[in-house]
Structure formats: C-alpha cells, structure tokens
TrEMBL record:
This is CD276 antigen homolog. InterPro entries: Ig-like_dom (IPR007110), Ig-like_dom_sf (IPR036179), Ig-like_fold (IPR013783), Ig_sub (IPR003599), Ig_V-set (IPR013106), T-cell_Activation_Regulation (IPR051713). One of its GO terms (cellular component) is external side of plasma membrane. It is found in: Cell membrane. Residues 12-113 form the Ig-like domain. Its main location: membrane. It is a single-pass type I membrane protein. The keyword Metal-binding does not apply. It comes from Carassius auratus. Residues 1-22 form the signal peptide. Gene3D superfamilies: Immunoglobulins. The lineage of its organism: Eukaryota, Metazoa, Chordata, Craniata, Vertebrata.
C-alpha cells in the first residue's frame, strides 16, 4: 500500500503529455473562500480507481487517492483550509473549496484527474476585502463633476 502510494505520487508529472487541459479562472478575497472547479464531466468507472492531485506552485494542496481524501503529503499550508465535496466524487466532480484566503494563494492551481488524463488549470486572483459601506460613499467622479459645475457657476 505504502509502495503503491508513493508510485502514484509521481504519476501526474509524466502522464499528461497527450492529455487534455482545461483553463479556468477564479477570484477570491483575503480571508474569504473560493471554490476551485475541477470535473471530468462523467462518473468515474470505479470509486476505488479515483486519483486526483491538486497542486499549486510545487505544493500539494489536496489529494484524493483510491477514492479517498488523503491528508498524507498535503502541504502544511493547506491543512484544515481545504474542503471537498465527497458526494460529488461519484459524478466526477473534484472541485475544492479553499478557505481563509491569503495573498500567497494567488496563482495557478492544477487539478490532475489521473485516470482520465485530464488537467484543470485554475488561475486564482486574490483581492482585498471590499470595505463595507463603500457603495454609499460619494464616488470621486461625482465629486469632480460637482466641483466643475460649481466652477462653471462662479465663472459665468
Ligand atoms: C461541483 O461541485 C461544486 C460543489 O458542490 C459545485 O459548486 C459545482 O457546480 C460542481 N460542478 C459540476 C460541474 O457539477
């Protein structure tokens, strides 16, 4: 078991030369959550055969092996920050939810569905949290317009 696990670990590196790659984008806010999509679009032939690797800049974000979530090998940075949707696995949906977002989470995530030779690349952008009540503040262009109206009134 241990041997087979470590062998599977290196599979994604060379498996996808002829595989399919899909590109997606996602946006999240500092301290917030984001769902990163990854789906094969069809039910896997066997649950036990499922092997999915989520990686980000050389780190293991999330691993599903033999149809089960494996915390072994997951980078400490992602411990307790990743949620999955095990009910969706049987539909071939291996999307994850990343919580407590940080600036360092930005960048490209690769979801490799090993058995399907399918890779999803999800580009995540991280933004500052929107300031509450920002919408009620007068916008700069409104102030500028008001000033120019005032000037026009004074000159003429
Ligand atoms: C996969 O599951 C997630 C979480 O439930 C959901 O948001 C997403 O729409 C699903 N994607 C597909 C292709 O079904």
């Amino acid at each position: 078991m241990e041997m087979r696990y470590s062998q599977l670990f290196f599979l994604p590196v060379f498996l996808f030369i002829n595989g399919v790659s899909l590109q997606k984008t996602a946006v999240g806010f500092i301290g917030g959550s984001v769902v990163l999509p990854c789906s094969s679009g069809k039910p896997p032939s066997t649950v036990q055969g499922i092997a999915v690797f989520w990686r980000h800049s050389g780190q293991n974000v999330f691993i599903i092996i033999y149809g089960e979530v494996s915390e072994k090998g997951q980078d400490p940075e992602y411990k307790n920050r990743v949620e999955s949707f095990p009910e969706e696995f049987k539909r071939g949906n291996f999307s994850i939810k990343l919580n407590n977002l940080q600036h360092t989470d930005a960048g490209e995530y690769k979801c490799s569905i090993v058995t399907e030779e399918l890779v999803w690349r999800v580009k995540l952008s991280i933004k500052e949290k929107p300031i509450p009540g920002e919408g009620t503040e007068p916008r700069p262009e409104m102030i500028l317009m008001f000033i120019s109206i005032l000037y026009t009134a004074i000159i003429f």
